[in-house]
Amino acid sequence: MSEARVGEIAGKPEDRRVARTRAAIRSAFNALILSRGYEAISAADIAEAANVGRSTFYEHYQSKEDALAMSLAVVLQPLADACSAEAPQGPIAAAITHFWDNRQLAKVLMSGRPRWIMARQLAGLIEQRLCADPSTKATAQAALPIPLLAAQLADGQLALIEAWLSGRHGCSAPQIAAALHATSSAVVRAAVQSEGQGASGA
What we know:
The chain is mainly alpha-helical.
């Protein structure tokens, strides 16, 4: 992912030296995943390919799994935000475009251990988003535990993106972004309404 795209999606400034180091690690990691597969890579392999010391790698990440999860967090955060009807469309569309621009890598990450890490990371971000929203943090908990709702949303979003990346459906990135936003926020709204109806009928 280019540093410009990182900034476009995350919307947050980062120390330039830290950004350069993490970009080097991320680039090397991505290349190794494509050439060897995730399971065959070690943290030492990533550090060597990025031309940084192992100690430098561990200054930024606890493990290769942590490196993958943190790298994914940048592009997954807008998907978590899509659970709110008020979320801006721009970052969501940028994240979806990023998946398409990097679809070869994305397809690899959509299977095996990387897929589990991605789903767990996205579910965690969604859970944080729901807990921070006054309209859902109290009511959704009773209708469906927030961790379960977050897991449902994460798996649904990734399934949509994975199917779209096959290229067989002819939808544009903005269409996918709009659909993901609409369906994700609708699931949350339905969970809140379900609890409200349950309370009124009690």
